[in-house]
Design brief:
The complex is a heterodimer of chains A (about 150) and B (about 425). Chain A is an alpha+beta fold and about 150 residues long. Chain A has one domain: Alpha-Beta Complex (Sufe protein. Chain: A). Helix content of chain A is about 45%, strand content about 15%. Chain A is built from 6 helices and 3 strands; from the N terminus they run H-H-E-E-E-H-H-H-H. The longest helix of chain A has 20 residues. Chain B contains 14 helices and 17 strands. Chain B starts with a helix and ends with a helix. The model of chain B has no long low-confidence stretch (mean pLDDT about 95). The chains are: A alpha+beta (about 150), B alpha/beta (about 425). Chains A and B meet through loops of A and helix 12 of B.
Chain lengths: ~150, ~425
């Protein structure tokens, strides 16, 4: 098995040097998600900056995939609109369900394209999705997204 | 002494390779064991030669099936020094423990309307306590939490010491006159600790409580005799002891089983059914509603036969030696911390550990890439993980078909993981 296809350099880099780690001072919405099979936890928070773009904070504990995913997501979506966040989430979920056959759009997903190989490891898909699903929940709680709009 | 090479040859799956031709090093027997050919053959032979509905029907096959089923029950009961009529088949150990727990919550519910029909030992009320330990598998924790929610009883637990053992210093105040049930694990699936269950059961009986033991990790790995354990109810599963999935065992003293309310109800568990009411069969049938696990019982009896041929004293000695070898090897590795007893006394061969700077999922992934199968996660013992300040652990759990070369493969894999992630 090719470990390198799972643990891309970009993923390892985000794991070792997480971007935007930490909680927000005045979150509009906050969600705490747990992966019950391994006990990984993450809290993702959102608010809006003065231009209306997203501010994202997170804190958690988990494996390299779940932590790198949170870092990538935060770097990618900070300052973006809710609809851009929604589009990226949908693209990322599609990628995770593509069983390694997905051809991700780097314009939409940025560094998150590095997770394409994760989809070949069913046990790790949940790890990669943890922060993304928590972000969606936080956006709903912040009133930025209605429940029906979720991916 | 076990002849590991000869044992290994009896397990077809151990000859398979994984991830591009690598030797499979199976170190996850705490989760489920592999099966020898004799067990697979027994299940197939039952279906080819004896398959029919048991305990009914007046034809030759029905008689053969019933005989095979009841002989299996006797053989499996004998393995733990018990009588056949005290052994209930369930679908797994979780169901066995739920059966015990529901014995209390059902009796408590029935007592509101028909107190004369239930044994007061099983009727709980606010002020009563149920005692478990902080090292329980969720299967011996959540069912009792549920009983507390239904009855108003309070859950208490025996805490743990820093070195992975039960802290028994306050045993007499934790198990006191309010205690009605004490349910404890014999051998921890996550820490490997072998608990002094006899002492705890004696204390339980001293205050009039009913004692339950989760023996999932003890019956497959060491000689267990129900008289020595001293419990009223003892549950374990078949698939962790070379048997098939889909079968578990619940042994109980005749006095407790005959007093317990049924868990599942329906066919096969009745004595007399009228539209107004039903009376129930004697144990064990009272607790085996529906078509029972016949083929699984026959196969589990073959597993018992296999283990008896090896001898459980030798099985335990083999695992003790492997545990000692693994504990020494793990402690020699930089940055590795064993979660559980590090002295090889009163402990089994399931060993959990944390690798500094690495998440268990990542350790397990690197091991898997090298053909080494271990378990990662909280092992259904989340509170135990929290007690030791880790979100989860990596666990190796060897069995009769493992030898030192398998432990070496795991140790080398841990070093490879440290190198891959640059934490060494």
């Amino acid at each position: 098995m090719e470990l390198d296809s799972l643990y891309q350099e970009i993923i390892l880099d985000h794991y070792k040097h997480p971007r935007g780690h930490g909680l927000l001072e005045h979150p509009l919405g906050s969600a705490h998600h747990i992966n019950p099979t391994c006990g990984d936890e993450i809290t993702v928070q959102v608010s809006r900056n003065s231009e209306g773009g997203l501010e994202i904070g997170y804190e958690g504990q988990g494996c390299s995939i779940s932590q790198a995913s949170a870092s990538v997501l935060t770097e990618l979506l900070t300052g973006q609109s809710v609809s851009q966040s929604q589009a990226a989430r949908e693209a990322f979920i599609d990628l995770m369900h593509a069983q390694g056959q997905g051809e991700p759009d780097e314009d939409v997903l940025g560094d998150a394209v590095a997770f394409a190989g994760v989809a070949k490891f069913p046990a790790r898909v949940k790890c990669a999705l943890l922060a993304w699903m928590a972000l969606q929940d936080a956006e709903i709680k912040a009133g930025l997204l209605s429940k029906g709009e979720g991916s | 002494m076990l002849d590991v090479q000869a044992v290994k040859a009896d397990f077809p799956i151990l000859a398979t390779t994984v991830h591009g031709g690598q030797r499979l090093v199976y170190l996850d027997s705490g989760a489920t064991s592999q099966k020898p050919s004799s067990v697979l053959d027994a299940e197939r032979a039952y279906y080819e030669q004896s398959n029919a509905a048991v305990h009914r029907g007046a034809h030759a096959l029905a008689e053969a099936a019933t005989e095979a089923f009841e002989q299996a029950r006797a053989r499996i009961a004998g393995f733990v020094g018990a009588q056949a009529h005290d052994l209930v088949f369930t679908k797994n150990a979780t169901e066995g423990l739920n059966l015990a727990a529901y014995g209390f919550s059902n009796a408590t519910a029935i007592a509101q309307w028909d107190p004369a029909s239930v044994d007061p030992r099983f009727v709980l009320k606010p002020g009563d306590s149920i005692v478990v330990t902080e090292m329980e598998h969720h299967s011996n924790l959540v069912p009792w939490q549920e009983v507390c929610r239904k009855t108003g009883a309070t859950l208490r637990w025996i805490p743990l010491t820093d070195d992975g053992r039960l802290d028994l210093s306050s045993l007499d105040s934790i198990i006191d006159e309010t205690t009605r049930v004490v349910s404890v694990v014999h051998q921890s699936n996550i820490l490997g600790t072998v608990n002094p269950v006899r002492l705890i059961m004696d204390r339980a009986h001293g205050v009039g409580a009913i004692g339950v033991v989760d023996a999932c990790q003890s019956v497959p790995h060491m000689p267990v005799n129900v008289d020595d354990v001293g419990a009223d109810l003892l549950a374990w599963s078949g698939h962790k002891m070379l048997g098939p999935t889909g079968i578990g065992c619940l042994w109980g003293t005749a006095g407790v089983l005959t007093s317990m309310s049924p868990f599942l109800s329906g066919g096969s568990m009745i004595e007399l059914v009228q539209m107004e009411a039903t009376t129930f069969a004697a144990p064990p049938q009272r607790f085996e509603a529906g078509t029972p696990v016949v083929a699984q019982a026959v196969a589990l009896a073959a597993a018992v036969e296999y283990l008896e041929k090896l001898g459980m004293v030798d099985v335990a000695a083999h695992e003790h030696a492997l545990a000692g070898y693994a504990l020494k090897g793990l402690q020699e590795l930089q940055g590795v911390r064993v979660i559980g007893p590090i002295d090889n006394v009163d402990r089994g061969s399931a060993i959990s550990f944390a690798v500094g700077g690495l998440h268990p999922h990542d350790v397990g992934q690197v091991l898997d890439s090298r053909g080494v199968a271990v378990r990662v996660g909280h092992h259904c013992a989340w509170p135990t993980c929290r007690r030791y300040g880790v979100p989860s652990t990596t666990r190796m759990s060897p069995y009769i078909y493992n030898d030192e070369s398998d432990i070496d493969a795991a140790l080398a894999g841990i070093v490879a993981a440290q190198e891959f992630f640059g934490v060494k």
